[in-house]
Amino acid sequence: MISLDDMMVFVKVVEKQSFTQAAESLGLGKARVSQIVTKLESNLGTRLLHRTTRSISLTDAGARYYEKCLLVKDIAHEANEEVQNSEQLPSGTLRISTPSTALINLMSEFVAMHPQIKLDIIESDSYSNLIESRCDIALRASSTLEDSSLYAVKLGYFTDMICATPEYLSRFRKVESVEDLAKMDWISHHIVHGEKQLILTNSHGEQTRLPHAPRVQVRTSASVKGFVLNHLGFAIVPSFMVYKELVTGELVRVLPTEHDLKIPIYAVYQEKALMPARVRALLDFLKNKQGEFS
Q1: 151 Cβ contact partners less than 8 Å away, ≥ 6 residues apart
Q2: What would the pLDDT profile of 234-265 be if each residue is shown by its tens digit?
Q3: Using an 8 Å Cβ cutoff, are 172 and 255 in contact?
Q4: How many angstroms separate the CA atoms of 155 and 252, rounded?
Q5: Are residues 236 and 116 in contact, defined by beta-carbon separation less than 8 angstroms?
Q6: Percentage of residues in the chain with pLDDT exceeding 70?
Q7: What's the rounded Cα separation, in Å, for the pair 238 and 210?
Q8: Most CB within 10 Å of its CB: which of 84, 101, 212, 253?
Q9: Which structural domains are found in the chain, ordered by start?
Q10: Contacts of 179 (CB under 8 A, 6+ apart)
């Protein structure tokens, strides 16, 4: 029988990268810590650590086991935390993966409602693995969700649109067709749009593909927006990222009939036997806010 204590000793060894330092941290002898890890490997029937006189490193099996041990550690901590909190108030740290700027307003409202909750937000325009990144919830914009092991709540839709500044557009006599875009500078998001082809989708789902090399290529939505606001070109951007600038007139929408793509946005999470109160509170909050992304 493998005990939770033995698993946590293994976690500490990995964290400290040293049997000696792990032993000191746990208040145990180095020999005892080594014995626990060896027994753990024997019970599991596989080696978890590569050992040399100067260093230790995880085997492939050890890396997978370490990730699972961290999940067990989190669940145990959350169970103790919730039982000890007689009022069952949501508390602790929420780790969230989200595209740049997408959740700022909603999460500000959520935090104001739950003063015991802290946020650790990973802003990324690429999809992160919830288990590997140890995220509680990820915000994902996609027409399809590939990982069937995850659960999802549809929050609404946003509009993918072409935008530019009035100053930049004033350099051109007219912008009336897709072909006119070929004469303009494209600020491209490498992760989202690739390199040499502009793909536009109208409200009927019909696509137009235009060979076009970007003038500036970046890897975050914030950078795309920054270059566009500096009058360097046009970009395809999500509506939630430029809502304020469209209202103030800093940006204007270009060829709305040629590109009017509606994309679902989801809150994605792992179903847990012991879902922390803070995660449940956020999911309930987001469900009540369905449609505010539209």
Answers
A1: 268, 269, 270, 271
A2: 999 988 889 899 999 999 999 999 999 888 88
A3: no
A4: 26
A5: no
A6: 88
A7: 20
A8: 212
A9: 4-84 (1.10.10.10), 92-154+264-292 (3.40.190.10), 158-263 (3.40.190.290)
A10: 210
